[in-house]
Amino acid sequence: MLFTLVTNPRIRRMVQETAGGLPRQFWWLWVSTLVNRLGAFVVTFLALYLTSSRGYSASYAGLVASLFGLGAAVSSIVAGVLTDRIGRRPTLVGAQLGTALFTAALGFTDGQVAIAVVAFLVGFCNNATRPAISAIIADIVPAADRVRAYSLNFWAINLGFGLSSAVAGLIATQGYLTLFLLDAVSTLLCAVVIFVKIPETKPDAPAAQADAPAVGLVTVIRDRRFMSVVGLTLLLALVMQQASTTLPVDMGEQGITSSQYGLVIGLNGLLIVLLQIPLTRWVEGRSRTAMLAAAALLIGWGFGMTALAGSSAWLYALTVAVWTVGEILYTPTLMGLVAELSPTHARGRYQGVYSLSWSLALFLGPAVGGVVLDHAGGGVLWGACGVCGTVAAAGYAVLGRRTGAAADGGPFEAVEAVEVAVPAAEVAVPAVEGKAPAGA
Q1: C-alpha–C-alpha distance, residues 69 and 361, integer Å
Q2: Mean predicted lDDT score pLDDT of the chain
Q3: Which residues have a Cβ under 8 Å from the Cβ of 277 and sit 6 or more positions away?
Q4: 43, 123, 183, 404 — which has fewest CB within 10 A?
Q5: Number of CB atoms found within 10 A of residue 248's CB
Q6: Residue 402: pLDDT band with limits 50, 70, 90
Q7: What are the CA-CA distances from residue 169 to residues 58, 66, 403 (Å)?
Q8: SS3 assignment, position 423
Q9: Using CA atoms, how far apart are residues 284 and 282, in angstroms rounded to an integer?
């Protein structure tokens, strides 16, 4: 049967249209992403580790996850600036080496304060890879192929995530330290692949300065259209962060075991692996605004349905399936839009600010979710997720109407204006840029 699928002309043509024509450097980045995610256990199981293995409360687990997110938030800006200043490759390799070191250290750390500090450092280094990876893809992939490239990279992330989550639940029954060490090793291998196979892709400074003026972080923040997208992303990211923080805690309180949680949350990655490619092809030529709004509703109310799951692992799996479809539609569509809204000479900063929305969600989502779950219950928490999804969907609809999103799935109107319309008066470099390391 497998041989028949591989040799089927229709299947082969679909694979060629989906994966063909992308540069070799992209595929090495894809491989490194897959290797990293195959061992990405810690973030997914951190809350469960702290509550079930170490005996801490849901509120403390939420606090630690929030500090992880705070580190990620700080690194979004720092790494975005470094990506533009010292380059994509050194920023990415340095971040991965730091992630490997502190992830391994977290497995041996004891004490509430020490765990919190190391979790902050893991979050800082882990998220510092985001602006560099996104900028590399935007650098090496033509604009017409970027949504497809981001979709394939997202597919690799979830292929690894789905496999690792299912296996990690079983490994966790023998002890969590192995999870931390495997995560560190996979990240180290990822850094080696990047260092050996991917050259620097940062545009030459003279050419960038000739094409457009320099862009500081203040300029990015004053870009109202871009910041509207960032704000809506933050709202949905707050919802999606519950999958790795309050969702496992809620499931544990309902009698769901760590192995069952691993299998249920692994369904997210499995469905993305199976559906990402066909759904990406399906959305081609459709309204970007409609896709973003529909995705927001599926994500919000997929999590909202969790209130009805009770003690049934199957019902939890159904809710995961609903918000996963929304995630499949949302992520590559949004990443393509962000890349188009980012000037070539400032991709690191734009990607850093965009990444900040996810980082702030890492910081705020677990803390708020943990407190709500402890004091108001799962019904209130999951109902609030549905409301957030509805608000985000309405926001994308309004933004699409105001900017005239093309009905054929093209970008918001006048996206090209972002590339050139950067007033000289707005070229400000805030103090955070001055904190870059010496030589940057």
Answers
A1: 7
A2: 77
A3: 14, 18, 151, 155
A4: 404
A5: 27
A6: low
A7: 19, 23, 45
A8: coil
A9: 6
> What pLDDT digit, counting tens, does each position of 116-144 carry?
899 899 889 888 888 888 888 888 888 77
Tokens 């075991």 correspond to 257
- Tell me the three state secondary structure of residue 85: helix
**CA distance linking residue 73 with residue 112, whole number of Å:** 21
CATH of domain 23-429: 1.20.1250.20
Report the length, in residues, of the chain. 440
Task: Tell me the two tokens of residue 95.
Answer: 């971040």
Q: From CA 428, how far away is CA 216, in angstroms rounded? A: 5
Q: Enumerate the domain spans of the chain.
A: 23-429
Interior/surface letters 9-26, b for 16+ CB within 10 angstroms, e for the rest? eeeeeeeeebbeebbebb
Structure-token match 């499995």, residue found: 270
What secondary structure does DSSP assign to 115-176, as a single string?
HHHHHHHHHHHHHTHHHHHHHHHHHHS-GGGHHHHHHHHHHHHHHHHHHHHHHHHHHHTT-S
Look at residue 413 in the predicted model and tell me its pLDDT.
40
What is the distance between the alpha carbons of residues 390 and 103, in angstroms, rounded to a whole number? 36
Q: For residue 331, what pLDDT band results from cuts at 50, 70 and 90?
A: confident
Nearest CA to 390 out of 319, 294, 250 is that of 294
Mean pLDDT value of segment 161-179: 72
Is residue 346 pLDDT above 50, yes or no? yes
Q: How many CB atoms lie within 10 A of CB 268?
A: 22
**Burial per residue of 394-413, b for 16 or more beta-carbon CB atoms within 10 angstroms, e otherwise:** ebbbebbeebebeeebebbe
Distance CA(140)–CA(88), nearest Å, equals 12
Whether 302 and 320 have beta carbons less than 8 Å apart is answered as: yes
Q: Give the side-chain half-sphere CA count within 13 A for 378.
A: 22
Structure tokens at 116: 């919190």
HSE-up of residue 375 (Cα within 13 Å, Cβ side): 7
Distances (CA, A) of 257 to 70, 289, 377: 29, 39, 20
**Cα separation of 408 and 66, whole Å?**
40
Cα torsion 279, 415, 133, 394: sign: negative
